[in-house]
Amino acid sequence: MGFHFPSVVHAKQLIQKPFSNTKNIPRGFLAVYIGEKSNMKRYVIPVSYLNQPSFQYLLSQSEEEFGFNHPMGGLTIPCTEDAFINLISCLNA
């Protein structure tokens, strides 16, 4: 007997990685960089996440750590990849 987690599967379908350049980002989405400075991964997420309080908290942490100088050229969020995917899964539940 297996378990089915539809919100987790749905979250993985919404989060797309990697995109080689900004031309490949669909309308209504934005690129974010997740992880430590030495090992960042790029994700493309729906713009609607910007309205979620838990996502806004991550953004405020990012502002405290990086200010407006994002070393990767895009929005950089200082959290682990697992924590980010868990947050996205909760947003889609």
Automatic annotation (TrEMBL):
<comment type="similarity">
    <text>Belongs to the ARG7 family.</text>
</comment>
<dbReference type="InterPro" id="IPR003676">
    <property type="entry name" value="SAUR_fam"/>
</dbReference>
<dbReference type="Pfam" id="PF02519">
    <property type="entry name" value="Auxin_inducible"/>
</dbReference>
<dbReference type="GO" id="GO:0009733">
    <property type="term" value="P:response to auxin"/>
</dbReference>
<protein>
    <submittedName>
        <fullName>Small auxin up regulated protein</fullName>
    </submittedName>
</protein>
